[in-house]
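User: Round two. Same drill as before: sequence, then structure, for each protein.

Assistant: Same drill it is. First protein:
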Amino acid sequence: MRYTIDLRLGRYESALRNIVSAGDAYHEDCMKLLNDNPQLFPLGLQLFNEPDKRNQILEAWGDHLSGEKCFEDAALTYQCCSSYQKSLRAYRACGDWRGVFTVAGLLELKREEIVQLAHELCDEFQALGKPGDAARVALEYCSDAERGVSYYIMAREWEEALRVAYMLSTHDLVEAVRDAASECAASLIAEYQEGLLKIGKYAARYLAVRQRRLSLAAKLRSEDRFMDVEDDSVSETSTSFSEMSAYTTRESSASVMSSNASKSRAARRQKKGGKIRAGSPGEEMALVEHLRGMALTGGAQNELKSLLVALIQLGKAETARRVQEAADSFEVSQRAAVKLAEDTVSSDRVEERAHTLERYVRMLRDRESGHGEAGGTWRINALSPPVTG
């Protein structure tokens, strides 16, 4: 049979065409071929006109996509063959609550069933760290305002929490948002102040490590004696210079040995989550990367802006100003520290007066002031403190 020959030769498309042409008696073999070679599903749909067989292929394709965790594609594929229960499960697996409730409508679930489903989704979204979605489900399908506002507060969607509280004209909910926003403000101020201190310490440590590396490299270049060490002293010398090799690009037996050890240590550092080890060969670049990693993320900036707006709307403009001032000091200092590191990491000198964090902070503020820039879209100009002379 041609099908068998094609199968042995790996000509799967030809094998599928042949098994389809062989008739219904071989339909089970056809489905097995499709399941074993999922890239054939599109061709399988083209070769069948009968609705029942096309639906069987679509459902099998959806099962494959679910197995590959392509849940959104699986959900749509299931809908094409009216397999709505499987479609609902696929939407639920990918956290698409809108898709879940649309399919629930297609299934004509009863009101109490939809409410029960909504409560379950709220719990699932909260566990998955998606309280914003949980809030929308609680409000729209559970009619639970208190729970919805609570979830919005957890998600730090402050403006939405306040909007819903005022929409329902519920004093207790407004007060809940006010208290939570005030608590969050105090926490953020403390976090930014602590972060500011850490930036100062990391920048100072980086400059010290960088200066040490440059000093060691200069010493090795001037002495240039370790290349002619006698064989019986190689072991002792390589040990004493293994750490120094991290601060020079010089080719030597010591530097090669240290390089190999560095790679092993680097791998261990990655496994340990990139911890900075004082005195390690990779400390300098680890400090630079850590300073870069301290930048405010897009999500953090959005949450910060939302909090500032809500605080103003709650009549707490002074609290909002203190939050913005703390965040501004942190963010400018972080950017200045990164610029300082980038300017010195490829330089062969560190100047004590020129290369300081304080100077770079002033330079950054002067440049932004000259261009009329605030350095971030999260800032609210109306909260800027008055200029004191």
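Second protein:
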Amino acid sequence: MDEVDFAAVFDAMPIPTSVLSPDGTFLTVNRAYEKASGRSREELVGAKLIERFPGGPADQGPEAVQASLARVVAEHRIDVMPLLRYDVESPEGVVEERYWSLMNAPVFGPDGEVRYIIHRGEEATDFVRKVRGRRAASRAATPEPSGRGGLFGLEARLQVIEADLYARTSELQADNLRLHGARERDTRDADRLRREMEKQRRAVADTSHDLRGPITGLQTRLQVALEDPLADPQDILRAALLDAERLGAIVGDLLELARLDARAPTKTAPVDLAEIVRTGLGHRSAGEPEIGTLLAKGAVVQGSAVRLARVVDNLIDNAARHAGTRIEVEVAVEGGHAVLRVHDDGPGIPEEDREAVFARFYRRADARAADPSGTGLGLAISREIAHAHGGTLHVADSATGALLELRIPLRVSPTAGSLR
């Protein structure tokens, strides 16, 4: 059996058809499309449909076709426009009123995404002109519009048919747009719900894993105390206390994250970020790496002093775990933002881990070795607090060590409020 020459079949198809890229660029057209559009294959291939056919001042064809192509790419579905006015410029430069029945269909690649779009266009201009011509002929042949039958009745029926045709086509296109809009909203909502469910699933799994450690530790200490009469009760109690403290820290951090996730309102007031840093450093022990400061004036934000103090403590704690000998803490005012930078001279954070460090319960191996009692929630909480203040927290570029940068908009209102 002979192999089918699909290229020849495509070129011989009597229906005007082209193949577009997802962005609407012509990849090929058949002879029927060349004839219907009045453009040669050489003129079309490599150009965008909207550029070659910009339409006329009285039609909305280009916008409608562009929206249809976008729906095909986004929804992976065939999109049909039963009757659309899309004016075309003739070779003489005259814009002609034209009507089309269009269909755009996706062709998928190996990755499941839209690789090509089949663009089929059947011209309906003659049909529309015939309807109008019959109505005009009927009107010309009718001497008086007072009769109810004959040609006047035919004209009336033609008028009704034409009006009904346009009305139903417009209604159908409007309904299609509404359905597409509703489907897009449903898809976005479903995606958001899936992300939230996955986030909750990961949170439950991570929480179970991290709570298991201190709970198992407590159970082991108590088991030893019950079964070994020679065990030192002071050692057992000290170890049990450490397990209980770690358990309390994890629960406390989880409660704070729950409040942040729920966008629970908290009272706000003007907060000087430099003063928060000074207060936080004043409470730290002397055995930590040396901490240098550069604190600018005027870094005042509208926020929660308690939560911002927690961010400062978390960032400095994180730096202290990784620093070699020194930490630099800077507060600056830049571009309408109060900026806090905490820079340590440790090994730094690999670029591939710059986002991962803000994930809940994520702890790098060196962090676990430096502080086994950490919860892995400090940076996650800090970023959520930054977002609650309309700000950002990220790992910035640094030649040495790790540099974390917090940016919060400066206070612009003199009144107190609430934070969500």
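The CA atoms of residues 100 and 123 lie 4 Å apart.

User: Perfect.
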